[in-house]
Amino acid sequence: MYPPGFCPPKNQLVRTAPPVPGGIGFRPPNGPVYNPPMGPGTIPQAGTAQPLPPSGLMNGYPEIGVPGLPAVKSFSTSVPQMPTPNPGMVFSPFPPTQNFLSANTAQLPPVEPPCGPSVASLPRVQIPPPTSYPPPPIGISAAGYKSSKRGIFKTLSYRLVLKRGTVDLLKERHILPSTPVEPPTVVLPPPYDSSEISIQPDVLRCTLTTVPSSAMALKKARLPLGLIVHPYKDLKKLTILSTSVIVRCRTCRVYINPYVYFPDQQHWRCNLCGRVNTLPEDFYYDPATQTFGDPTRRPEIRNASIEFVAPAEYMARNPPPACYVFVFDVSIAAIETGYLKVFCEKLCEHLSALPGDEDTLICFMAVDSALHFFSLKSGCRPKHLVMPEVDDYILPCQTDVLAPLHKMEKEVREFLKTLPELFDNGNSPHLAFGSAISAAHQLIASTGGRVTAFLANLPDIGQGCLQNREDPNMRAAKEVKHMTAVCDFYKLLALDCTANQVAVDLFILSDRFVDVATVADISKYTGGYIAHYPSFNICNNPTELVRFTEDMNRYLLRKIGFEAVLRVRCSAGFAVHTFFGNHFVRSTDVVVLANVNPDSAMGVLLEIEDSIDCRVACFQAALLYTTSHGERRIRVHTICLPTSESIAEIHNGADVQTVIALLARMAADRCMNGGSLQAAREAMVNAVLDSIYAYNMCLNSKQFGRVLCSWSLRLFPLYVLALLKHKAFAHGTSVKLDHRIFEMCNLRTMPLFYLMLDIYPNLYPIHSFSNEDEIPPLLSLSFEKVDRHGIYLMDTGRYLFLYVGQAVSDTLCQNIFNVTSYKEIVAGLVKLPELENVQNVAVRKFIDQLRSARPLASPLRIIKEDSPSRELFTTRLVEDRTDSTLSYTEFLNHIQKELQPK
């Protein structure tokens, strides 16, 4: 049913909690709120009323035929076996029983996480109806070539497989486009293609834009079926609707959306389960025009993403005020970095703009070998309370340490100015981090909120104390040890936090070993955020200083959602298999996030349980949360995709970037839950082998000297090779254990845009700028594309590397860097001089354009060809061979040999 190497275990960490009477969060309204009961699937008599234009589920159209396809070879035992791999190769597919399962799935104690809603305050502006375009022509190549006229992919051919959509990777070596890869356009079959309503691809995206209509088709296609969901992303246009009635299906509880069908003016048919529901009278009112009439004019029908203000019956309690706790590491290792002064300055700058209302609470703690609390009272000097007993501490009174921010803003500012000086002479080498987080949780357990913790040292005393278990001699080993937590303290504490709607965000500010594999559990299971600033020091690492400063600007001001619950609903026949990200899984299709932020996404692996009868499949992600101003909201995203039994159409509709994003999450999840690094690497290679073999069998190709794949998946082997060389999964190179684990944590939560840049950065030649508006073409990540006379910009998402060749001309040095020669360029510079010439202006404008399109900071770092930091650039040239890895050409040759019959 799934490619070997893709399927995590069905018994994923799930703990179903019974509802708590009077618990926190959302609950369904009592009684029949939306529609009177009707028989499922029965269309009521509508008199002489004419059906409305279709906006969703339709019947009466011929179903897609299943072409006769030969049996597909695969690694599973239920179909013919693929040829035995050559044991002498570097990458050898692993036995059929291995896959992306968690070898040691830890059992957690029962917990009753609340099903609370959560956050987001945007201006309530109604967006105009979307522009309607004529449907694209039928019968164009199934490969989905890009239209130069309208910039979209042309329609799929449902009955014809044309081989011009097939690529021989051994012949077509230059497959990278000169512009960033665009997401494929979903082309729905008639009549669904009439409205042009679609979800933004960076919010909800499926690995297959043509969904298999049966489990057997999915098994033959040998591709993963899943979603990348970015539910709380900042959206420039989002309709926020305040209504007394939120219309939902009475059977499956899906929210009404653009893909439902109106058989008449009084009813609508659910696009997930097929039930016919009655429309409430309020639904005939159009808030945009303030008139009554056609229900298809409603915002719910015209927007694939919409946000509702939840009515009172969805509330189980009055929303508590926003509450923020800051826990500072003040051990000697942390004080030496200088981070405390930088952060306090930033917090002072943005204090009045923290998300919240007049009741917002704030609290400060510090920790070294003792716990430090601070009592802030209006008109009084702060009191410093020290608890030296970190194993059995006495918690201060909440009212003493939780300060009302807006009433005591002046006192808080004065405290932040003096806090760094208080610990300037700190000399404690020990850290009771676990005790500090536990105390912070207890302080706000009654209200919930966010704990922001800074860590620069190994927690070695108090609750959850750890020992250094990294062996520097094993960093380049084939099998990496200690990728899982050494104890359950932080996981169990995280479950308590989740039950009380407390999330912990973790900022790691050191290259010292802090055991990220263990302490990260406190964020992983609470919906928290994890950031890492290696070698952070305000004096000698300007790149990380700039990144930390800009990240704090974003972190302190970005919106936040409290008491969040995310549910993913699927069309009949589909089911959620596994979630990947930072959350607590409450049931098979529901995850709990104590906090939700706009910079984190998650992956969802789907499975097919029954054959699909409809020509389209729909998936809906609904996020319920509380805003920082105490308002309940429900944000709903819906996607509709065509279905097919044709293996060729499934491959031609694959979204390679989403496939890679899901594959990376699955591999990271496997490693962090007890699986071996080598098994994860082999599973990724198997994914490529399986997909290419399945497509060759679909084409009935017996030319074993070729590596054929669909046009849409032409970059799949290249991206997998880049993933194998990523710091999270690389072997044969020295990677610190904490760095490796952080990268795995990052892959599990990265939005798709950042993840793709992190795996395969964009490389631009910027030495040839001739005008300010020029956009340089993308280059392949190979040193053969790098000229010693040139200057290149590498965009990794997290950093911008400006690489300067040693033979660069003096003219370029003068125009861009304002120096007379290459020798005078200062390596590590984080800002270009502002000069009034075409090249300097064009480079700075291009860098500003890249940064303006993303919320997180991307600091610039200048790297000279002969500088020690050159490795930061060259290690990202993933198409080249190294001592322990294959080049892209060698990787393709390996794939070819593995596909040959033995």
Please, could you describe this protein's structure?
Helix 4 (339-350) runs antiparallel to helix 6. Helix content is 23%, strand content 17%. 50% of the residues are buried. Residues 1-164 have low confidence and may be disordered. The strands form seven sheets. Strands 3, 5, 10, 19, 21, 22, 24 and 25 form an eight-stranded mixed sheet that branches. Strands 11, 12, 13, 14, 15, 16, 17 and 18 form an eight-stranded mixed sheet that branches. It has a four-stranded antiparallel sheet with strand order 2-4-23-20, with helices on one face. A hairpin with a 2-residue loop joins strand 21 (584-587) and strand 22 (590-596). Among the domains are: 323-467 and 485-557, von Willebrand factor, type A domain (Rossmann fold), CATH 3.40.50; 761-874, Severin (3-Layer(aba) Sandwich), CATH 3.40.20. It has 21 helices and 30 strands. The longest helix has 23 residues, at 677-699. The chain has 902 residues and is of the alpha+beta class. The radius of gyration is 28 Å and the shape is globular. Residues 246-282 form the Zinc finger Sec23/Sec24-type domain. Residues 561-644 form the Sec23/Sec24 beta-sandwich domain. It is found in: Cytoplasmic vesicle, COPII-coated vesicle membrane; Endoplasmic reticulum membrane; Golgi apparatus membrane. Keywords: Cytoplasm, Cytoplasmic vesicle, Endoplasmic reticulum, ER-Golgi transport, Golgi apparatus, Membrane, Protein transport, Transport. Belongs to the SEC23/SEC24 family. SEC24 subfamily.
